[in-house]
Amino acid sequence: MKNVYITRIAKFLPNEPVENEEMEEKLGIINGKASKARRIILRNNQIKTRYYALDKEGNVTHNNAQLVAKAVEGLCDDTFNKSEIELLSCGTSSPDQILPSHAAMVHGFLKSGNLEVNSPSGACCAGMNALKYGYMAVKSDQVKNAVCTGSERTSSWMKSDIFEDEVAHLEAVEQQPILAFNKEFLRWMLSDGAGAVLLESEPNGKTPLKIEWMEGYSYAFELETCMYAGGEKLEDGNLKPWSEYPADVWGKMSLFAMKQDVKLLSENILKKGVASMKLAMEKHNITEDDIEYYLPHISSYYFKENLYKEIENQGLHMPWEKWFLNLQKVGNVGAGSIYLMLEELINSGKLKKGDRIFLQVPESARFAYSYAYLTVV
């Protein structure tokens, strides 16, 4: 087995940062009324700026695959050409279409020559699953290098016109034309962007990071769906997919909008997160003393203090000085967030040889968690 190193890292954030007061202008107003939930949600998540692949008029400037292609191109220079990439592994929650796969579409924009593509599906863990596939491929000497990415382009999923059919339908049946909170919640949470890493079996580059190990855990066997798109959650907790609904109700029910069961999220995301964190740390016999930088992907600063408390409650300790977050500046980029955090840390100038970095990525879709442990070499 080969050693595996992150030797290059790049990001692409579209357009200019969007301030809180600009969000509704970009995404649009639903039913002609400003959102009452927006300020409450933003006060809790404490995100100050985010990025949208939309211009000033709300027109799309990049699709998801184009965002990723830009990030991948950021890995390349005179000493490493995109034609040298042997494996392209791309994870996202928000692919541009059902078929072809996300990585195939990225490859189409790169026009980089023949290579293997891999497109893990899912939510936030999709970016880590993309990394793990590349990690295993390089480690087992299947390929000499791999480019792995995480990205989201959710802004177009959150635009007001996505919900207009549903609001019109509610008015027609004499119901209150108010969007359900589980549909509106994510409108004020998500951001667009892409991150990419180059994996190689030699510690090249200015700040190479050795991937010591990666782990993943799922609690779908005991918890029902929490975040979803392309279906509707039934009273019994099961998810009914869009393909089982008549086409004429897809818009009336906003079936393709991203939705979140907020109550289920708050009850489980931290407890299962720390439980799986303990499993990973115990399996590899590490403690907080073996970690210089802790990078937890959190969707909102609402969870920051509570995550710290839950870590303490379950018998672990993670001092604040080890935490590294950038949510306030770039927003919640889902599968891309961990790449953007790591990119900022690497370029901060803080890292020194021997530093160890612990990555933690939860996804609330059906409660899955991914981990990676890195060493600066």
TrEMBL record:
GO terms for biological process: secondary metabolite biosynthetic process. InterPro entries: ACP_syn_III_C, Thiolase-like. Keywords: Acyltransferase, Transferase. GO terms for molecular function: acyltransferase activity. The keyword Coiled coil does not apply. Residues 281-359 form the Beta-ketoacyl-[acyl-carrier-protein] synthase III C-terminal domain. NCBIfam families: PRK06816.1. This is 3-oxoacyl-[acyl-carrier-protein] synthase-3.
